[in-house]
Every structure is written in C-alpha cells, then in structure tokens.
Specification:
Oligomer: single chain
CATH class of the largest domain: Alpha Beta
Number of domains: 2
CATH topology of the largest domain: Rossmann fold
Strand order of the largest sheet: 3-2-1-4-5-12-11-6-7-10
Strand content: 15-25%
Helix content: 40-55%
Structural class: alpha/beta
Distance between the termini: 35 Å
CATH architecture of the largest domain: 3-Layer(aba) Sandwich
Shape: globular
Length: 305
C-alpha cells in the first residue's frame, strides 16, 4: 500500500479517520492525499416568491470555509503537514474520482452519525463509497484514536473476503489478533428452511482459507464458525470480543439485488460501533486483470522455451 486517500470535512465525525490515516501511513510508509468535497448548494424553491439560487460569491465563501475547517481538522489531529485538495461536486463521486486519479490504495473516511434513522436511510458517505468503490474503504468512527489490535474478518470463501482478510492482516502488528469468522446461514426457499450448511464442511474450508492468509510476526490467528444471520452475528461477535475493525468483502450488488438479497457489508456499515473495512469485489477483478496483463507482458518479453 503506497497511497491513502483521506476524505474529511472539518467536522468532529471525521476526526477518527484523520487520526487513523496518519498512524496507518506512518506504520506502512504510505503517503496521504487529503480531500474535502464541497457539494454544490441546493437551489431552493419555497413554492412562492423568488427562487433562491446560490450565487458564485456564496459558493466561494463556502469553499473557503470548508478549506479552513479542513485545515484546522488536520492540525488538531497532528496531520497539518498533509496536502489538502478541495473539490466541488457530489461527495461520493468526487472521492472516487480523486482515488482513481492519485492511484489510491485505500480510502479512509469517517463513519458519520450513529443515529439509527440517519444510517438506516443510507445517507452516509462511507456506505455509498463501499457500494461503488473499486478501492478498499475503511470507515472509522469519530472516537477511534489508535490502530487496530483486533480485527474480525467475515469469511464467505469468496475472492473478496480473502482479499479483505489479507489486507486486514497487513494492518496488524506484533500482539494483534486476526479472527476469521464464517456464519453458516440456513438454506432457504421462500419461507421454507432447508437446514443449515454442514458445519464440518465449513470448518474444513476455514482451515484451507486460513492457510492462504499470511500473518505478520507476532500476530495471533483465530478461526470460528457460527450459525445464524451473518450481519447480526458479526456485530454481536465484534461487540463481545471488542474488535477494533470488522473486515469483509463486498459482492457489488446493484440496487435491486441489495433490496431483494440484502447486503451484509451495508448492514454492518450502518450498524457497527467499530471501524469497518470493505474490500469490493470489483477491486479484486481489477487486480486480477492487472496481474494477467503483467504476466502476459513478461511472457512476451521472455518467452518460455
């Protein structure tokens, strides 16, 4: 990991993200691109009288205020030496474009408010980023001040969950704990439950999965298999074990798939009290394509006899 894109806005809900981005960059030797996004002021029509349309001078004042707030936030979180870019546009799209432009390896943002209604409605930038990003996203609660010592990884044996586990392991140092957890949900057709996935099979696959994750020196590995609802179980286990981060892969469902099938990553992001690391499936696909192209290039330059 060489570059971290840090999304901030000057408000206290992003303080944790700034602290963690700074410490993480120092630990792994990465650089930080700090980005604040000014969303265009809304045109307001009250239904009577003149329509309020923001003028250029108002937008300039808002942009300057955002810059000042963001610089103050960087200073109070001991990251005042970071380069700050202020963009104007839709927040999620702007952050995704910025991450692509700087070849960011990780997007770090605040988790935003914890009020149930706000998060259930999905009005949070972290949630929208996780649903659309081609880069791993780390959503950090406002109060978080130190790097993770314990990470809970949701394992569904997909390439994205393996990538999430490997990335999570790389964030830990001596004394840390990586816990791999698989939830065996009951197979169901409509309202008819057909029974749970065989536990013995899940435990065997967990052993094979764990063998593919390289751990830093001094990091402990745990594997566990549970039964029940995946999102609810993960949240309960994270609370019980005091996990600092829940890491999981995202399958890149479209809107209707999320409505019909649900999304564990979205539910966890909405309800988790700790940080959440989401590794999108499209990021895995992009890396696989890059690796394939690199291997093809090498074979063309150095053909196998």
């Amino acid at each position: 990991m060489k570059k971290i894109l840090l999304g901030l806005h000057g408000g206290a809900s992003a303080d944790g993200a700034v602290h963690i981005a700074r410490q993480l960059a120092s630990q792994i030797g990465a650089s930080i691109e700090a980005v604040a996004v000014l969303q265009p002021p809304t045109v307001v029509d009250y239904g009577y009288g003149p329509v309020y349309v923001p003028d250029p001078s108002t937008e300039a004042e808002l942009e300057e205020q955002l810059r000042v707030d963001a610089m103050r936030q960087l200073a109070r979180c001991d990251l005042d030496g970071a380069k700050l870019t202020v963009l104007e546009g839709q927040r999620t799209s702007s952050l995704l474009d910025a991450a692509a432009a700087c070849s960011g390896d990780l997007i770090v943002v605040g988790m935003g408010p914890h009020e149930f209604a706000d998060r259930t409605l999905g009005g949070e930038t972290a949630l929208h980023l996780a649903q659309r990003a081609a880069t791993p996203v780390l959503a950090v609660p406002a109060r978080m001040r130190r790097l993770a010592r314990r990470i809970l990884v949701a394992v569904d044996f997909s390439p994205s969950s393996l990538a999430a586990a490997r990335l999570a392991a790389s964030l830990l140092t001596t004394g840390g704990t990586l816990e791999l957890a698989h939830v065996t949900a009951a197979m169901q057709i409509g309202s008819v439950a057909l029974g749970p996935v065989p536990r013995a099979e899940a435990e065997h696959r967990m052993e094979e999965f764990a063998a593919q994750v390289t751990l830093p020196d001094g990091v402990q590995l745990l594997t566990r298999v549970f039964g029940g609802d995946a999102a609810r179980t993960l949240l309960e286990v994270a609370t019980q074990t005091k996990a600092d981060i829940i890491a999981l892969g995202s399958h890149g469902y479209n809107f209707w798939q999320r409505v019909l099938l649900g999304s564990v990553s979205s539910k966890v992001l909405r309800l988790a009290e700790c940080a959440v690391l989401v590794y999108p499936s499209r990021c895995v696909a992009a890396h696989q394509k890059t690796d394939h192209l690199q291997r093809s290039s090498v074979s063309m330059v150095c053909p196998v006899p």
